[in-house]
Structure prediction request, 333 residues.
Amino acid sequence: MRLSCTASDTNLRVRCSSKLVSLAVLGSVNWDINLFIDRFAEVGAEVSVKQILEVPGGKGGNVAVAAARILGSKQAAVIGGLGRDELAQVQIKILKQEGVETSGLKRMSEVISGRAYIVIDRNGGKMIHTLFKANLRLNPDDIEDPHISRLIKQAQIIVIIDPKKETIIRASEMSKSLGKTVIFSPATRCSEGLKELGEAIRNSDYIVVNRFELKCLTGKEKIVDAKNALLEINPDVKIIATLGKKGAVMMHKHGQNKIQGVDPSRFGLKVVNTTGCGDAFLGVFCASKIQGYSDEESARRGNLAGAVKATRQETRGSLTAEELESYLKMLQQ
Prediction:
């Protein structure tokens, strides 16, 4: 593999360009319709909308873009489903402009591209309602498609997020058999539960969830009980639970490590939209691992990216490599 790498200073590891992708992300590509309000409505009530913002989103696209902004063009690929509609053309154009490899996107004429309808209050809290549509048409057999299997074979890290359960399992089996680092972030698939997703968990090196997803996935209220439930299925898996403004916790069979939260006000910034913060975390975590950082340092970098993303209205508000290094330096002052 031919690599060309540069480093701006001793604190910045490498930013590499290569003919082969380093990261492949299986997940949704949606169009986000964001409604900004002062407060959430109670059932049966009505509130006024202050602003509407339409932007590209979907966890697969978001994570791939976040990683590409750190690693450089063509280093991250997204694998998923889109319709053959005008929206799909716009999505692909935007992803390519971000430097994301799009050859793993399956196009379908019989179904529309996915959309998400997101309500955001004045504190940046959100409620997300997703119409997955084409995202759920990525089937297990599609993983064997030459365009998709090529990306999985090339990549160092495979992230599996929210295709349907059967596709999750097939992708995790292939990735495991190829000796790849497998990161499973089940998102909305957490409702399937441990029994249904057990095979994917066994094939994973990392499970990345937020605190709500961890509870939904395991049925356990306490984080330690949730950790034990996952370790019973895969004793070697590492579990990363993102905790919003409290940071994150990395858990494994030997114990756990706490990643301190970052208050954006430290940079003179205000939280406006928490949608996509977890995706920014995951994309930067993966990129940092590929650059050679440790688990803990990669999580610290991802946590910072997620915190700053919360201060930006757009879903894909993750940091560039230069911005990440700048904010890291500010944290050290």
The CA atoms of residues 229 and 248 lie 19 Å apart. DSSP finds ten helices and 15 strands in the chain. Confidence is low (pLDDT under 50) at residues 1-18. The longest strand covers residues 76-83.
